[in-house]
Specification:
two-stranded antiparallel ribbon; 2 domains; globular
């Protein structure tokens, strides 16, 4: 069977499975729509949490960033996995014991203020839409290559799929859909990793293959060979880092703390019956997450080796079919700078900015671009980092069914997280703004209708952000983590562990942290991208890591304001004790 036919078959069957599950478990009440009725088994919830957590950034983009950044890419591994441990130990059980539907629910009640609830909703919307932009971009990339449609159309198709099972099924439908999506994505990630590890090292276990010798008779270990190959081409060694120590620390810390403040992950712990189940589901989720995260470094290293072997110094007329497949989707490009008809890889940008493709072909048959070539470096090849995991099976000449499986897995990863984020946005609008703030008299039926309308509107905005994203998938997601670290995490943390923190302090802290972090990221990524260089960064901290400074500002402002304003009512102290102290 042809590879393209297999792709249509695998993707079509997976979509039919997701939609069937959503229809079968359609939410019939607000409790089922928001928290799946609160009766999900911890193992099932752990698997759904892992799918919610392992987004397009984890499946599609993380290994691509590791492939091109080497040691510097480890910040994503350390930050995201470490942050999940922090979430499981510090926040999840206490928030479940609190027993509400949403993060703004907790903040509004703990800080006895509708204003605090509204500020939390605003923070949540900023975080969620930034995060979802990366997911929809991932959906567009997968559809673009494997279903042979433009990226923008791919985003629109993804919007339609998410609409069916997120808007109809609510959290109940999404939970069981995410279990199926986890099974698809982890199988799709591991199978090609096993194949490629065996082809390169003779060891089928990728985690062990990364530390094995290469099957080329050189006796070199994988990382040794990668270091030598890259240094010969003018790059820094793969195992050395170019980022400053302070930036590595801040990015890692922002990802860790941001993880503990992500509303779409926190809400998963509201779906289990009791607080002890929240701890169990967190443990199971960590096991399921570790399968992919311990494999990603090997996938990144193998992808970089395969890419270099497949492309470097190869005549364009002899270029592998996979290169032209991705070139036709505007995600890879070549410009013959020295006129020898061969593709040379080197350090630096092949073009001044990302290439703007035209339909015309050059003298060697290459797809032409309309912006200028960067002449001051030897690199002739532009590659979008987000394609590396998806292209890896094609580069390694794996069977068509493996390529089709990866397509289905990439879509599962992106759609599962997108659905979780959309539900968080819709519930914050319908439950926290309407029911709890502006229209407390609304009926349950009206609230459920409002939640679905809010989810529909959120899908439209998410699609727009997916078509015009401010960076790579993992990079965009990193911005969302920074916003979460700077806004919601301090308010949640102090709400659980400090009886003295009051509403004035929490509101002032959230506004300060969110404003500072959003403006910093916006300046360097949206309004003045040409100034996004280390010399212009505050203390040498990149936009991906600035959430740590926003978090510190949040804590400082909240503590100072709380110190000079009235203490919370006594019943708030009792509430904090109830959350933290086990029952006799």
């Amino acid at each position: 069977m042809a590879t393209q036919t297999l792709i249509y078959l695998f993707v079509g069957l997976s979509f039919a499975l997701y939609i069937g599950i959503a229809i079968a478990s359609r939410a019939g009440s607000t409790s089922e729509f928001y928290v799946a009725g609160g009766g999900v088994n911890p193992v099932v919830n752990g698997m759904a949490t892992a799918a919610d957590w392992m987004s397009a950034a984890s499946f599609i983009s993380m290994a691509g960033i590791i492939a091109f950044s080497g040691y510097d890419g480890s910040v994503y591994l350390m930050g995201w996995t470490g942050g999940y441990v922090m979430l499981a130990l510090l926040l999840a059980p206490y928030l479940r014991k609190f027993g509400q539907f949403t993060v703004p629910d907790f903040i509004g009640t703990r800080y006895y203020s509708k204003a605090a609830r509204v500020v939390a909703v605003i923070c949540l919307i900023f975080i969620s839409f930034t995060y979802i932009a990366g997911q929809m971009r991932g959906v567009g990339i997968v559809f673009s290559r494997f279903l042979d449609v433009p990226i923008n159309l791919g985003v629109i198709i993804g919007m339609a799929i998410v609409f069916v099972y997120a808007v109809l099924g609510g959290m109940k439908g999404v939970t069981y859909t995410q279990v199926a999506q986890y099974c698809v994505l982890i199988f799709a990630y591991m199978v090609p990793a096993f194949f490629i590890s065996f082809l390169i090292t003779g060891n089928p276990v990728p985690q062990l293959g990364l530390g094995s010798t290469v099957n080329d008779g050189s006796g070199l270990y994988v990382l040794q060979k990668l270091d030598l190959v890259l240094q010969d081409m003018g790059f820094a060694a793969y195992t050395s880092g170019e980022k400053s120590m302070i930036d590595v620390f801040c990015i890692t810390a922002a990802l860790m703390v941001g993880t503990a403040g992500l509303p779409h992950v926190i809400v998963r712990f509201f779906t289990v019956p009791k607080a002890s189940d929240a701890r169990k589901s967190a443990g199971w989720a960590l096991v399921f997450i570790a399968l992919l995260y311990t494999t990603a470094p090997a996938v990144g290293a193998f992808a970089r080796l395969n890419f270099i072997d497949s492309v470097n110094n190869v005549e364009y007329s002899q270029v592998p079919e996979w290169f032209k497949n991705w070139e036709s989707n505007d995600l890879i490009a070549w410009r013959d700078k020295n006129g020898d008809g061969r593709m040379q890889l080197g350090k630096g940008d092949a073009f001044q900015g990302a290439p703007l493709f035209s339909e015309n072909r050059g003298t060697n048959g290459e797809r032409l671009v309309s912006n200028e070539t960067a002449e001051n470096n030897p690199n002739e090849v532009y590659v979008d980092r987000d394609i590396m995991v998806l292209a890896n099976p094609e580069i390694a000449n794996l069977p068509g069914w493996v390529i089709a499986l990866v397509a289905a897995g990439g879509l599962a990863a992106a759609l599962s997280t997108a659905a979780g984020l959309l539900l968080v946005i819709s519930s914050s609008i319908s439950h926290d703004l309407l029911k709890s703030t502006f229209r407390p008299q609304i009926t349950e039926k009206g609230e459920l209708r409002a939640a679905r309308l809010a989810a529909t509107a959120a899908i439209v905005v998410a699609g727009y952000l997916g078509i015009y994203p401010p960076g790579w998938v993992a990079q965009v997601v990193a911005f969302a983590f920074g916003l979460a670290a700077a806004s919601l995490f301090p308010a949640i943390f102090m709400g659980i562990f400090s009886k003295r923190m009051n509403r004035e302090g929490a509101i002032a802290g959230m506004v300060t942290g969110l404003s500072f972090t959003f403006l910093y990221i916006g300046w360097f990524k949206l309004w003045s991208p040409e100034s996004n260089v280390e010399a212009n960064w505050l203390f040498g901290i990149s936009p991906e890591g600035i959430g740590v400074i926003g978090m510190l500002l949040n804590f400082a402002v909240a503590i100072v304001v709380a110190r000079f304003t009235s203490a919370p009512p006594k019943e708030i102290g009792w509430l904090v004790d109830k959350i933290r102290v086990p029952r006799a």
